[in-house]
Amino acid sequence: MPILLLVNKPFQTLCQFTDNEGRATLSHIVDTRRYPKFYTAGRLDYDSEGLLALTNNGRLQNQLANPQFKLPKTYWVQVEGAPNPEAIAQLAQGITLKDGPTKPCTAKIIDEPNIWARTPPIRQRENSPTHWLEIVLKEGRNRQVRRMTAAVGLPTLRLIRSQIGPWGLEHLTPGQSREVQVNVTHEAPNKNRKPKGKAGAGAKTASRRHSTSNEGTSNKGAYKGTPDKSTPHKNASRTSTPANTTGRTKSPSYQKPTARLAKKRPR
Which tens digit of pLDDT belongs to each residue from 48-85? Predict the structure, then answer.
């Protein structure tokens, strides 16, 4: 069964194993000798924290990252300001961003979750309160949660992904990981796939093969009860031209003479 490696990605860590600028990467928290050729199934921003999934199975990676599966992802969001019911309703119904409207989601106010302290801590103003939201998305755009909260006047201060489908953080601290075995039973639906049947490509190919397989065949091995159309029957006429009921034959070059106009005699 494919192995899914669940990692709690720390703050300011890249979702890749190498970096030319010396920033922290997954190679600092994942043992590449124990987990060779493991790649991320979906990404998480550099300044975001929380659950990240890695696998070495291509089908499982597609199932987790492909939006066609509509795998829900849960985020805990610490925002600046006091969210009102109108703002929560806007988040749930969908926000129109520069790259189009977002799909409806689940959004609600929650108590501060029991989580680890971030290093460095968030930037917090004295006269501006903060609140926590839980947002569940079934799509993944670039920095989507941050853009959604900013659109309703609630800037994001801290963003943690707590769950991917049925898998959650549980007791993982930043940098820790755990293995789970997953049974992959289906593939992502393909909208461009043609249905099988008479209208499909398979039926056209089969009919084309059937039509070409009868071309150029000989009747020497034909069943005796089937008359051979290539040889005339003994009672059939030897000529292929239609019968002439007048008893006259017409040459192949015969053409019907055109009528001549009668000359008028002078009066």
Answer: 999 999 999 999 998 888 877 778 999 999 999 999 99
Q: What pTM was computed for the model?
A: 0.69
Known catalytic membership, residue 228: no
Residues in contact with 193: Cβ distance below 8 Å, sequence separation at least 6, in sequence order: none
- Compute the distance between CA of residue 157 and CA of residue 242 in angstroms, rounded to an integer: 95
Please pick, among 31, 45, 47, 99, the residue that the annotation labels catalytic: 45
The DSSP bridge partners found for residue 100 are: 97
Pairing of strands 130-137, 106-110: antiparallel
What is the Cα–Cα distance from 223 to 231, expressed in whole angstroms?
15
- Answer positive or negative: Cα dihedral of 235, 241, 243, 247: negative
Nearest in space to 173 (alpha carbons), one of 111, 121, 118, 136 = 118
Asked if 89 contacts 201 with a C-beta cutoff of 8 angstroms, the reply is no
Give pLDDT tens digits for 77-135: 999 999 999 999 999 999 999 999 999 999 999 999 999 999 999 988 878 899 999 99
Task: Give the contacts of 4 (CB within 8 A, at least 6 positions apart).
Answer: 41, 53, 54, 55, 60, 64, 167, 179, 180, 181, 182
pLDDT in tens, 17-40: 999 999 999 999 999 999 999 999
Helix ranges restricted to H, 8-120: 58-65, 85-93
Q: Are 51 and 162 in contact (CB under 8 A)?
A: yes
**Which residues in the chain belong to E strands, given as ranges?**
3-9, 39-40, 49-55, 73-80, 96-97, 100-101, 106-110, 130-137, 156-164, 167-168, 177-181
Amino acid (1-letter code) at residue 50: G
Give whole-number Cα distances, 116 to 12, 49, 66, 122, 237, in Å: 15, 11, 30, 13, 102
> Token digits for 56?
């070495």
